[in-house]
Amino acid sequence: MSKKQQAEKIIRSHTLWTMALGAVPIPFLDVIGVTFIQMDMFKQISKIYKADFDLNKGKALITSFVTSTMAGTVTIGPSLFKKIKKPASMISNALLQAALTYALGYLFLNAYDEGKCFFDLGLSDSTELFEEAFEKGKEYVEELSKN
Prior knowledge:
Blueprint: H1 3-22, H2 29-48, H3 55-70, H4 76-81, H5 87-113, H6 123-146
Helix pairs in contact: 1-2, 1-5, 2-5, 5-6
């Protein structure tokens, strides 16, 4: 199995974990848990590509990237929906968090495939790629949710 195939397998499994965690009806647990899942995904992909991964730098970069491109609706917004206790909002939260994890995983993978370090990517360089990956991520998790 190629490095890219191994990384794609990691992205898919972490997307599933994120989707499951996103459905837990405890406010703010998703933010903490999803961050942990995403950092683990990045760490595992880095290991495949034999690259160093700095956890603190990773958290800071992901936070700034997500808040810049998603206008803050991905992290705090969905967690607040859980206070309403509506199943539909919990499901949409789970799908949103999973699609985000998928997109970030592919952004990370793309950087390594191009011989770059993820931490070297600029927001302006990555926004279009992120948006494309996020759309693919939404399609992927919608398909998973049908099964």
